[in-house]
């Protein structure tokens, strides 16, 4: 394993510290936490509903890169691939609350769900109104009763953008929770990997694929996917992902947003080639694309791979996506 | 039965020691069906418990449980931090409300964890240790071999909660690491009670 680090134990702490030190005018680190929070005047003097998210480290720029005007009020980092702790989430909620309550955006993993749940109880004890929405956009996993259910992956950033913009425009907590849930229901993602990520504490790739293999349906923590196949041209991969996602929607009517997301070690050159194929395929199917984004938005450490997210847009969602956001990474 | 504040600290510290002695074994169990760090994570949490108990010197039962809970939740992270934290926080709350029977505290801790994790017996989680063990303790039937038997039973279960649930059938054949780490808590309890006799 080769990584530019000092010590495996200090990865999350030193990353958060580096992020805040290089953006001192915009953010601060809440005391005794790995939480990054807004300090701009709009936030300090504002009265909007707070939006808080967080999760294990290794998916940067998620979540800290999306803290800022128009997106998150605060984000808490956990250790690599490990949920943040309730005491820290609670402190972020408390900081984000301006008397109008706080919306928690949580990815569907057992640890995240439980720790945010405990933090919510701690905050409610202080009479802060808190609502939680759970993102589960990864349709490569069945939503079966006998598993944890679908995972939260790249679609999370679209949920954060739409809810963040609506909160900035003054939407109340109940409406935000409803909006966020609707966006989650309308968002579907599938990822694929050419090689697995190396979790620093483990020291080697989480699984092995041959030189000429790729795997469809991987998660962002090296979770294995639904099929290992021979590496195919970008256009073939785009066909598979678009077809599978659009089949899950069942209808091509309406307007859609797309997110082509690099998983950490995928050159932007490859991401744009893949995006080109996705757009061509969608055009061929007469599907209207009203918003598109390409880049490393939700990563899996150093996984070489890509994910495609498609959201079926409703109401004002297009304008929420296009609205200005003053963050490091949107 | 009631356990004094002093004995409760002794019990928890013995659990802390068991975890320290079994970090590698717990990591190995977790490698099979998780991300291989349960021993390391729990040891970080239980060592924080040991430190907090030594520094804060809690004098009452609710404070002992509360100190333990807060040290666990604030240092472990992940699902196991939330679940162990919920167990001890429940015992803190109930003992503060005047409940002193250890049987009741443990049974309620088990119920609170089921609720927190939306889980029940048979899903290959720590509940497969806690549920039978707390009920056997209530019925004065808890023994080392019974505890071991509960741990072993998780081996042939198919996981249906948490990250290991995505492995489906492939999760069969491996002991649940958190049922194993929980078993040390009940073994430690038996030790403390035996010394009393």
From TrEMBL, chain A:
It comes from Liquorilactobacillus oeni DSM 19972. One of its GO terms (molecular function) is glycerone kinase activity. Residues 7-330 form the DhaK domain. Keywords: Kinase, Transferase. This is Dihydroxyacetone kinase subunit DhaK. One of its GO terms (biological process) is glycerol catabolic process. InterPro entries: DhaK_1, DhaK_dom, Dihydroxyacetone_Kinase. GO terms for cellular component: cytosol.
From TrEMBL, chain B:
Residues 6-191 form the DhaL domain. The chain crosses the membrane at residues 69-92. PROSITE patterns: DHAL (PS51480). SMART domains: Dak2. One of its GO terms (cellular component) is cytosol. It is an enzyme of class 2 (transferase). It catalyses: dihydroxyacetone + phosphoenolpyruvate = dihydroxyacetone phosphate + pyruvate. Its EC number is 2.7.1.121. It comes from the Bacteria. Keywords: Glycerol metabolism, Kinase, Membrane, Plasmid, Transferase, Transmembrane, Transmembrane helix. Pathway: Polyol metabolism; glycerol degradation. GO terms for molecular function: glycerone kinase activity; phosphoenolpyruvate-glycerone phosphotransferase activity. The keyword Transmembrane applies. SUPFAM superfamilies: DhaL-like (SSF101473). InterPro entries: DhaK_L_YcgS, DhaL_dom, DhaL_dom_sf, Dihydroxyacetone_Kinase. Pfam families: Dak2. One of its GO terms (biological process) is glycerol catabolic process. Homodimer. The dihydroxyacetone kinase complex is composed of a homodimer of DhaM, a homodimer of DhaK and the subunit DhaL. ADP-binding subunit of the dihydroxyacetone kinase, which is responsible for the phosphoenolpyruvate (PEP)-dependent phosphorylation of dihydroxyacetone. DhaL-ADP is converted to DhaL-ATP via a phosphoryl group transfer from DhaM and transmits it to dihydroxyacetone binds to DhaK. This is phosphoenolpyruvate--glycerone phosphotransferase. It comes from Lactiplantibacillus plantarum (Lactobacillus plantarum). The lineage of its organism: Bacteria, Bacillati, Bacillota, Bacilli, Lactobacillales. The gene is dhaL.
């Amino acid at each position: 394993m080769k990584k530019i680090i000092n010590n495996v134990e200090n990865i999350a702490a030193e990353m958060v510290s580096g992020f805040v030190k290089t953006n001192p005018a915009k953010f601060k680190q809440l005391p005794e936490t790995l939480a990054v929070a807004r300090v701009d005047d709009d936030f300090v003097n504002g009265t909007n509903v707070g939006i808080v998210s967080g999760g294990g480290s290794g998916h940067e720029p998620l979540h800290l890169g999306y803290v800022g005007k128009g997106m998150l009020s605060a984000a808490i980092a956990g250790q690599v691939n490990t949920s943040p702790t309730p005491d820290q989430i609670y402190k972020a909620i408390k900081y984000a609350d301006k008397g109008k309550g706080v919306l928690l955006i949580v990815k569907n993993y057992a640890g995240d769900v439980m720790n945010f749940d405990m933090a919510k109880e701690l905050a409610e004890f202080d009479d802060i109104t808190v609502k939680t929405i759970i993102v589960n956009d990864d349709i490569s996993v069945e939503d079966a009763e006998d598993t944890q259910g679908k995972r939260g992956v790249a679609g999370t950033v679209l949920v954060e953008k739409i809810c963040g913009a609506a909160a900035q425009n003054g939407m109340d907590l109940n409406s935000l929770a409803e909006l966020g849930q609707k966006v989650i229901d309308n968002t579907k993602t599938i990822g694929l990997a050419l090689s697995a990520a190396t979790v620093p504490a483990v020291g080697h790739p989480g699984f092995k694929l041959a030189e000429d293999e790729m795997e469809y349906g991987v998660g962002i923590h090296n979770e294995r996917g639904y099929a290992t196949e021979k590496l195919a041209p970008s256009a073939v991969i785009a066909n598979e992902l678009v077809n599978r996602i659009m089949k899950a929607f069942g209808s091509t009517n309406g307007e859609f947003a797309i997110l082509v997301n690099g998983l950490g070690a995928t050159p932007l050159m490859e991401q744009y080639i893949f995006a080109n194929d996705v757009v061509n395929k969608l055009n061929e199917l007469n599907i209207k694309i009203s918003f598109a984004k390409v880049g490393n938005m939700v990563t899996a450490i150093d996984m070489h791979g890509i994910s495609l997210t498609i959201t079926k847009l409703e109401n004002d969602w297009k304008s929420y996506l296009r609205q200005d956001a003053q963050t490091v990474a949107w | 039965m009631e356990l004094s504040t002093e004995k409760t600290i002794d019990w928890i510290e013995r659990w802390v020691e068991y975890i320290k002695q079994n970090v590698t074994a717990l990591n190995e169990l977790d490698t099979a069906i998780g991300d291989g760090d349960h021993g390391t994570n729990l040891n970080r949490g239980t060592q924080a418990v040991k430190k907090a108990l030594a520094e804060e010197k809690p004098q009452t039962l609710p404070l002992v449980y509360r100190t333990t809970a807060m040290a666990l939740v604030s240092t472990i992270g992940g699902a196991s931090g939330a679940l162990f934290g919920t167990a001890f926080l429940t015992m803190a709350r109930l003992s503060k409300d005047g409940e002193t029977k250890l049987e009741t505290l443990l049974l309620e801790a088990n119920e609170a964890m089921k609720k927190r994790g939306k889980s029940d017996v048979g899903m290959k989680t720590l509940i497969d240790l806690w549920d039978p063990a707390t009920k056997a303790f209530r019925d004065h039937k808890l023994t080392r071999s019974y505890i071991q038997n509960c741990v072993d039973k998780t081996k042939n279960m198919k996981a249906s909660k948490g990250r290991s649930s995505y492995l489906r059938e492939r999760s069969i054949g491996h002991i649940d690491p958190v049922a194993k780490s929980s078993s040390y808590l009940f073994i430690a309890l038996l030790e403390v009670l035996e010394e009393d006799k």
